[in-house]
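pinging the channel bc i need a second pair of eyes. not urgent but kinda urgent?? the chain im working w is below, pasted from the shared doc
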Amino acid sequence: MKISGTFDVKLTPLESYAEGVDGVNLGHMSIDKIFHGDLDATSQGEMLSAMTTIQGSAGYVAIEQVNGTLSGKKGSFVLQHFGTMNKGTDRLILEVVPDSASGELIGLTGSMKINIEGGQHFYEFEYELV
């Protein structure tokens, strides 16, 4: 199955344990999202990021737990993020953590793409329920 929709996101800075050196800025943030469309859900998670001294070069990792309905089926699942930017060229991987789904979503696998256009966030979620 492949679905798409929009989502709202709120990132809130949290206290960081580690401090960057040599101009690298390390960040720690909470993630709160509301998904709209065939994924009608909310999520909460945490993100770690590193901004380098080179404009457009950075990295982040995140974990978020999504709770709601997916194509009418109720449950939750965890998404794991891995993202890098290399002088403005980005690479982003979001995958469902194996065996993290509950309720009617048990057996869920899949990956998500995120696009931002004109300040609006869009998702494309390709998944399988086995």
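so The beta strands are 2-13, 25-37, 39-51, 58-70, 73-86, 89-96, 108-117, 120-129. and The chain has a mean pLDDT of 97. — does that match what u expected or am i reading it wrong
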